[in-house]
Amino acid sequence: MVLAVLVVGSGVTLILRNTGDDKVPASAETPTTAPSVTPSETPSATPTTPAPPTVDEIVTTSRLYTVGVLSPTQCLEPKAVPSTFAGAKAYYGLIVPCMNRTWWLAMKKASLPYRAPKLVVFAGPMKTVCGAESGNRAFYCGTNETIYMPYALGAAYYKRNPVTGRVWMMNTLAHEYGHHVQKLSGIYAASLSRQVNAASPADQLTESRRRELQASCFGSAYLGAAGPYIPLRGPLLATWKVLIANTGDEYSRPRVHDRGNRVNHNYWSVRGFNTKSPNVCNTFVAQTVLTN
Known about the structure:
By secondary structure, the protein is α/β, with parallel strands linked by helices. It has helices at residues 55-60, 85-109, 151-160, 162-185, 187-196, 201-226, 235-245, 262-275; strands spanning 6-8, 12-14, 21-23, 118-122, 126-128, 131-133, 139-141, 146-150. The protein has eight helices and eight strands, in the order βββααβββββαααααα. The strands form three sheets. The protein has a four-stranded mixed sheet. It is globular, with a radius of gyration of 21 Å. Strand 7 (139-141) and strand 8 form a beta hairpin. The protein has one domain (54-285).
């Protein structure tokens, strides 16, 4: 299959460019000890509060990396036709609850909090608490824990080739949900903090790539686990392999090295898909995201 190169929004370009955007918009009192009854008694020790984990510890040692293979939800691919706004809204809206259950089980196993994300399907320019969007990019807003999916781009892919459109929509939604998983686990905020405080612009871009590639790995782990039901096999799987092998910063205009090149994107996506597990998605200790 030959897929056309598109230029999207403010620099998200792809031979299919699936990765969206992630927009960023007290001490305990020391208890006192009662006086000793006799001078010979040893005063009781003052209990200490363990220090909270550092941002480096949060991103590198998250309990998400211990949950094992994701449990698939037995959801079939929606019958809704996403060539219209109502169809696209229904299509995304029926997939998100399937993702909710799988990730709820994973977060429960990791003893991490879970909240379902909100979903907004939009057409045309819009303003959010995380900033303005022209209407062509999918993105996750951590401030209000909302996944924003553009109608026009998915519909354009679908009208050109229904298989291509469905794969782009599923993969992009799974990637943005990956950012929500990062938010719930604390990885999202910790990574943004590391990025802001990085020593150089190059280090800031490296941190952004770690976060984006992990979201793709998380999303692909879900797609791999859900494969028997969605189903991502046959023509859909073949198209997905082309998609993830041709998604990267090489295709963005202007070219910004903040998402990962196509080699790294393919590596982390395939890794998540094949293992069906977030255990292999610790991009924050890997070397493969350093170059671009």
